[in-house]
């Protein structure tokens, strides 16, 4: 159990059952579950664009 608490704390996600996570997400207005890591699929860097 302590390892689960550490992982959730380090990742900034809620720890609990799905009903609890949905309730926290609704009340806070932000995601409380871990998303996929890295860039989204389909993301492509444009080459030759200068700011």
Number of strands: 0
What percentage of residues falls in helices of 4 or more residues?
Answer: 40-55%
Q: The biggest beta sheet, please? A: none
Structural classification: mainly alpha
Average pLDDT reading: 78
Enumerate the spans where pLDDT stays under 50 for 5 or more consecutive residues.
Answer: none
* Rg (CA only): 17 Å
What is the overall number of helices? 2
Q: What fraction of the residues are assigned to beta strands by DSSP?
A: under 5%
Shape: flat
**SSE series:** HH
State the end-to-end CA separation.
49 Å
Oligomer: single chain
Structural commentary:
The chain is mostly helical and 51 residues long. The chain is built from two helices and no strands. The mean pLDDT is 78.
Summarize the structure.
The protein contains 2 helices and no strands. With 51 residues, the chain is an all-alpha fold.
Descriptive tags:
single chain, mainly alpha
Helix and strand arrangement:
Blueprint: H1 2-11, H2 18-28
